[in-house]
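Q: Here's a chain of 393 amino acids. Please give me its 3D structure as tokens.
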Amino acid sequence: MLDFNKIQLGEQVSLRREITAELIDAFARLSGDDNPLHMNSQFAQTVGFQRRVAHGMLVASYVSTLVGTQLPGTGALWTQQSFRWRAPVLVGDTVQITLTVTHKSIGTRSLTVELNAVNQHNAIVLDGEGVVIMLEQKQQQVDAPFSERVALITGASRGIGAATALALASAGARVIVNYVNNAMRAEEVCHAITENGGKAIAIQADVTNFDAVQKMASNATSAYGKSADILINNASGAIAGRPFMETDWSEIQSHFDVQIRGAFNVAQAVLPNMISQKSGCIINVGSSASWNVPPANWTGYVISKSALQGMTRSLALDFGPHGIRVNMVSPGMTETDLIADIPERLRKVQSMQIPLRRLGAAEDIAQTILFLCSDAGKYITGADIPVAGGRVM
């Protein structure tokens, strides 16, 4: 079977066959065509032929043999044929059939082929052209078990990132705990994982720095044999609420640098491994702040999370054919350091506006991420799932 993508214009295949009486007899039994022209030598001579004449479709059947076994091979299906029988083929003749590719359509996975068949005297006995399509086997994607997968979580020294690292490690994945400043907390997360029998390493890298991210991917490959099968883009900067007219563009840019450039850098670093193995899972951690009515004075944070949603959909479209799923999880207000400065009274007010009557926990978000990385989420891509206790519907 040929790789359809590698078939070139002008590519040729050939087949030689001696036409014997036994072949003609077998074809007559199969087709029911017992015309004495094919079956009786004396009759053939009375109409001007020295020997029995082979069925025209017997010769043409060898064209099908070439198509089904050589060019393009397994999975090939004729859709159109136009053959011209130029001269009869007699018992004892040897024919050579040649197919040449004259046109190729990637979109329809089809080939136009030119046919030429000659006998032992190099006289043309059959020619023509046809169109054949290459059927594609539909294979259901099956991810490797978590025990064979490497998960890279950015911003994993605390909050949702740490909870996600623990959840993926509990499922059996080998975990990379990325951090930018707090090495001690990152090591604490790794210690909690290894204490429970899991595998984890902490790697420092500022995701806004492309070279640092590439080095992190290289270190991951050295430790685990590959960069990542699972990527969780969780790194996020602090939110400083400020009225729009008092906001400097540098504050907006800082959100874009972490949320968008960071996700961009890390995705570019790990996607080659995912593409080569034809599987992978990327989860971008967004925010329900980009749904419905956003919080006041959070301009930079909200627009960067909205842009991350657009990146999620674009990557899902581009890399779905490679077996890579890309999704987004958008937490509601969650008990992490990100909301440490929000007054308790406001937290209670927020809780009362949530149908489940509580703020989210980091573990709530981690479990949704784990679901999307598992076989249970294998047919979900390009989605943005709000994990907000019903605050977003």
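Q: Can you summarize the key feature?
A: The mean pLDDT is 92.
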